[in-house]
Amino acid sequence: MNKLQKYFYKKRFKSDLVKCFREVGLYKEIKHKGNSYKKFPTFHDVNPDFDKDIVRFTFTIPVGMNPEKVTKNEWVFVQMFSQAYTLDCRKNRRFVLTVYAKGFPPLTAKPFDLDKYRMQSLEYRLPLLTGYDDKNNMHFVDLLEDPHLLVMGETGSGKSVYLRSVLSFLFLHLKDRIEFVLGDLKRSEFFLFRNLPTVRGVYHDGNKLKQALKKVYDETMRRGDLFDEAEVPNIKDYEKETGIKLPYIVVAIDEVALLKDDTDCMHYLERISCIGRSAGVILILSLQRADAKVLDGQLKINLTNRAVFRTADLINSNIGLGAG
After folding, report:
1. Please, are residues 171 and 160 in contact by the beta-carbon 8 Å criterion?
2. What is the C-alpha separation between 37 and 3, in angstroms, rounded?
3. Residue 262: CA count within 13 A, CB half-sphere
4. Which residues pair with 241 in a beta bridge?
5. Are 260 and 294 in contact, with CB atoms under 8 Å apart?
6. CB 179 within 8 Å of CB 247
7. Could you tell me the CA-to-CA distances from 131 to 7, 21, 107, 264, 285 in Å, in that order?
8. Which residue in 135, 66, 127, 130 sits closest to 107, CA to CA?
9. pTM for the full model?
């Protein structure tokens, strides 16, 4: 590609981005001598890399514009450039938008950095590692802020490996501050955790698991009474008010669909999903298909985090993600 062609490509890319700014009002109204005009973000660089099929935009928003206005309107970049992009805010007003013309570059396997995990997860009470960005930075969700996790995918898609990883990370982060109640109805997933001191039990039988869930529910109600006496709403404020640290409880069940006919187990799971967050009790449920025959509406809605692996088709994927 010659210089003239590259010039026109850059002009087109810049024009597309200006359309985005105009569409969502990313400009500042300036009045001068009775006239008014729109001041759009200033472009520092429009850099297409034709070998890697990416375009990198660097721009600065006008003084006085809230940077959050850019991030809150990211949907316009999705519509213009598809979902294959990253947006980074640097030095308050300066942004770098990278658009991948052929989708995100393939990920390469990297050794897991445990020290990095511990350092970056310190600000979260119950950290759920959600992935890495294009700069290899870890991203987390705090399960006490956004409670409970649904893991879905067909056989062999990797959901059980992911589930074991989540539990391992939580144990490494909290150790003596966390307790686990594990339902292993396939008798194949949680044997690794059986001898950990903070594991209350690994249950293969529905009746024994039902008793364990009842104890967890009773503990949730007991903590509610403690919070009422201390006049606080949740475990975080209870710790601040009394100095007493109650252990977090994670209930993880692999192939929860095998419990669908056990009304008592499903009843306890639904109750815990409704009131567990404030008491420091979190559910992690894994299954192959999260339709209404397995998870009723209330329970599924309360599982605010979703990790969906390979499914048979788009319909099943949307069911897991809550998009259909």
Report:
1. no
2. 33
3. 19
4. none
5. yes
6. yes
7. 37, 29, 11, 35, 19
8. 135
9. 0.69
DSSP 103: S
> Exposed/middle/buried for 300, CB within 10 Å: 0-12, 13-18, 19+?
buried
pLDDT in tens, 82-99: 667 788 887 778 888 888
Beta bridge partners of 114: none
Query: What DSSP line would sit under 267-314, residue for residue?
Result: HHHHHHHHHHHHHTEEEEEEES---TTTS-HHHHHH--EEEE---SSH
What whole-number distance in Å separates Cα of residue 108 and Cα of residue 132? 12
Whole-number Å distance between alpha carbons of 291 and 150: 12
Digit-coded pLDDT (tens) for 239-281: 999 999 999 999 999 988 889 889 999 999 999 999 999 999 9
Spatial CB neighbours of 261, under 8 Å, sequence gap ≥ 6: none
Measured between alpha carbons, how far is residue 154 from residues 24, 72, 165, 293, 320 in Å?
A: 40, 34, 18, 17, 11
From 198, 192, 246, select the one nearest 222 (Cα to Cα).
246
